[in-house]
């Protein structure tokens, strides 16, 4: 048995400007996703989320009219490393018969849950780390980025090109916060330093909102409203020498995906050359590049040839990345937008379509102690 994505829903607002509570925004997004799929919200019997989401599924039941809550789960960790893993556990619940229709979701409204960065800091910035002056995720990730630039020789230009590509796509995506706004390269270079080497535009900035992706069996998906997008494979975890939260990881400039990507390629029988489009969670630009390296799209030696602006944009680039604008330019509801764009590409509904796309890779939050990746496909198996 295989599983497929059948419904998408997203409500996104400026941070601090949601017109309703986080609960209300999430309920609306779930209803949107069910309408997209052509199913009754009451028939959703499973839920899974990640990143310290506060919305316990049992509290959604009365608003959704849920007939029966059969299964619910949440991925450990406060960062975005678990985003792709949610699809793995949703598929496991469906394939094992514990649930029939599962909503993968993430909701974030500042007036209810506070700043997302606080949740990330609570998990990732231990007393040991804060005690030596690393008081924000940007500072911690900046150290890893600096290592990548200085020790491994990754060109600084790669960071700029990833940001430019994100804004190129965002400017052409009506759903993006940067829609209609081209990135001024000189403005980017002159923007204030947040934590060296990160300028303002290298950093994701939070939005209020909620995103929902509905999964069910591939067999049932064929009879629903939208073109099914199949879950090809998922891998989650961390390798030896990584993830102990002490800033002494064996491969300090890595995004933590090397063991995960190795298992993902083995599980699916695919290679980086088979992937048509990539949605990479970029809390910061350098961490997005580290993800691409960890997944084998390039090496420290070739990254300057691969991570080039012209190569990253759809439809002409050979490695289109973050075609909705990503966390930098589409909006940042803790990365759920990247998952939705991964599916939109294979549906053919992306604002920046990659013609003939067959395989779409989603990479979760880089640099988190536990990370995850998934591949979606137009293949039925």
Automatic annotation (TrEMBL):
GO terms for molecular function: acyltransferase activity. Residues 246-367 form the Thiolase C-terminal domain. InterPro entries: Thiolase-like (IPR016039), Thiolase_C_2 (IPR055140). This is Transporter. It comes from Candidatus Brevundimonas colombiensis. The lineage of its organism: Bacteria, Pseudomonadati, Pseudomonadota, Alphaproteobacteria, Caulobacterales.
